[in-house]
Design a protein that fits this description.
Layout lengths: L12 E6 L7 E4 L7 H11 L5 H20 L4 E3 L3 E7 L16 E7 L1 H8 L4 E5 L5 E7 L4 E2 L4 E3 L3 E7 L9 E6 L14 E2 L5 E4 L3 E5 L8 E12 L2 E10 L4 E4 L1
Parallel strand pairs: 1-6, 9-17
Antiparallel strand pairs: 1-2, 3-4, 4-5, 7-8, 7-10, 10-14, 11-12, 11-15, 13-14, 15-16, 15-17
Length: 254
């Protein structure tokens, strides 16, 4: 349940997600935090000393009953001058004799009161987080031993499992790569040196788990970072592929 502050000092914040189609552009998202009817009644009591909470609750229940009944009769209902509730058909009607048809299947819709719309336009909010659309590798496992590679060890010619978020490999440029280390220990940015895992070697490909056989052309007794790249999301080819690289390198043992 959402915590509420009776002093009305709760910070309003949004999260930002990079736009996949335009650089240096972010989509703002307001986290949905629902305040229940009981919490609304608690706030009414806190802000209006001496009021009878139960009488207000009973009045709200009566108001809800009338609103629903009027909506079912087909009326548009102005709810406390905040928004209007109205009903609309779910789909169009196809008929050779439309006058004799009975239309079935309706849904509720809302339109915002203009005064509220104007008030919301003037609101400001802080940024609570910037979400990353790139694949996020949280754990690398050796499926043969079922052990997390805290020591960074993988067996050559065997297989590996990656756990995390947004891992699913898709798109023409997507894939799993073994990235050589530079002398300073950082991953090489020269993608010509990256070793791709053949698509046929990938045995499990989901947002949270990747399982694959190690490519045959990696060098034993060598350390590599592992990169996961997607160039497609939800069936749409991305303008710029997104890539996630493991935080630690793995050592390929013979």
């Amino acid at each position: 349940m959402t915590n509420i502050d009776t002093k009305r000092e709760t910070n309003f914040a949004v999260t930002l997600t990079p736009c996949r189609f335009k650089e240096n552009t972010y989509i703002a998202h307001v986290p949905r935090r629902t305040v229940s009817t009981d919490q609304i009644l608690d706030l009414v009591s806190a802000h209006n000393q001496g009021i009878d909470r139960y009488q207000v609750g009973h009045a709200m229940a009566l108001l809800k009953k009338e609103i629903l009944e009027q909506a079912e009769l087909g009326f548009s209902v102005d709810i406390l001058e905040i928004c209007k509730l109205y009903i609309a058909p779910i789909s169009s009607v196809q008929s050779l004799t439309p006058e004799s048809e009975s239309v079935t299947g309706f849904e509720a819709r809302f339109s915002v009161n203009e005064r509220l719309r104007e008030r919301l336009k003037g609101m400001t909010a802080t940024v609570t987080a910037v979400t990353d659309s790139s694949p996020q590798i949280s754990q690398i496992e050796n499926p043969m031993t079922k052990m997390e590679t805290d020591n960074g060890l993988l067996k050559a010619t065997f297989s590996a499992r990656i756990l995390g978020k947004k891992l699913k490999v898709a798109g023409d440029l997507g894939g799993i790569f073994f990235v050589p280390l530079l002398d300073d220990g950082n991953p090489s940015k020269n993608e010509d040196d990256w070793i791709k895992v053949p698509d046929s070697f990938i045995t499990r490909n989901t947002d949270k788990t990747l399982e694959f056989h190690l490519p045959r052309n990696i060098t034993a007794n060598t350390r590599y970072y592992i990169a996961v790249r997607a160039s497609e999301r939800n069936g749409t080819e991305l303008k710029n592929p997104v890539t996630g690289i493991s935080k630690i390198p793995v050592l390929i043992q013979e």
